[in-house]
Amino acid sequence: MKERLTTPESMACLHCGGDYLHQGTVEVFWREQEDSATGLCARITESTVELHTNADTNNPSLRRQGLRIRLKCENCPGVCWLTVSQHKGCTYVALVKATDLEEREVCVEF
Ligand SMILES: [Zn+2]
To answer: Hey, where are the domains in the chain?
Structure first.
């Protein structure tokens, strides 16, 4: 039996290795059904709550539900996303670098 992620661990910035990451925008994706591009995407920022019907764009899961949390590094200008995605019944957790395109689309400061 796997015993990963059973205790809290800090994450390190993928750009500089620093471990002061501040949580920002949270996005939750809920597909109408498996592989559906439609459904709901709830985006929560510092001052807004948005609800969209596109469950495909930026969803870390290619086929099912997902969520992601924007993490801004305190030590460098780097931004990462903590993602949770489902694929074929398994749930995956990952930390990925934000792309320049994502940063232009989100443009949220903490
Ligand atoms: Zn950093």
So the answer is: 21-106
